[in-house]
Amino acid sequence: MSYENKTLIVYLDGDYRRFKAVAEIYQTFDYDRAHILITSFNDHNELRGTKDLLNSNYDYIDERHILTEYFSTTTYNNALEIQQILSRLNYGNVIIITSQYHKFRTKLIFNNVFKGSTKLKFLGVNHHTTLMEYSSEVIKLGLYLMKNYKFFTKDNLLYTKSKYRRVSRLRYQ
Fold first, then answer.
1. N or C end of the chain, less CB within 10 A?
2. What distance in Å separates the CA atoms of residue 131 and residue 136, rounded to the nearest whole number?
3. At what angle do helices 75-88 and 100-113 cross, to 10 degrees?
4. CA 84/CA 134 separation, integer angstroms
């Protein structure tokens, strides 16, 4: 299915504070010109843990415009899953929303997986970042640069145990 004239706004899981930026960008598009992809929408996702966060705080977002991806556990896996989604739902543009401190590594990984595709745009959201978040990002960047991300292949991930795995909204699109 082709959505060449539509934009996919990707919420990279990891921090619910990013979703406000996703919603604000969504509002700038005319109706049905943008869809939202929530990644890692599994048992541990912060949006899932807040009851009706999407419905109560963002009621202007049409639920039919929200896609969910349940399987990723790392940024590298996010890129692989999104690549598979885009092979089926060919969006014209993709805006990836992440935290500012995470933007460099996200661009590095996605540009590697997507071979420098020009349809990808990246937005880093500024918010109070802890020393632990910065430290974790530096360690993850080092591991990625050493090619250790290959240890996190789908066969070794725990996402197959998610109770939400079978209800992905992608099949309804």
1. N
2. 8
3. 50
4. 30
Instruction: Note the pLDDT tens digit of each residue in 11-26.
Output: 887 667 788 889 899 9
What letter represents residue 43's amino acid?
D
Which residue blocks in 8-163 are alpha helix, DSSP H?
A: 18-27, 46-49, 53-57, 75-88, 100-113, 131-145
Spell out the residues 6+ positions from residue 149 whose beta carbon is closer than 8 angstroms to its own.
74, 76, 109, 143
**What is the Cα–Cα distance from 30 to 18, expressed in whole angstroms?**
21
Distance CA 155, CA 136 (A): 24
Could you tell me the pTM of the whole model?
0.77
Q: Which residues contact 146 (CB under 8 A, 6 or more apart)?
A: none
- Phi first, then psi: give them for residue 80, nearest 5 degrees: -65, -45
For residue 50, is it left (φ>0), alpha (ψ between -120 and 50) or beta?
Answer: beta
Cβ neighbors of 143 (< 8 A, separation 6 or more) are 149
Alpha-carbon distance of 114 to 8, in angstroms, equals 15
Token duo for residue 115: 């071979």
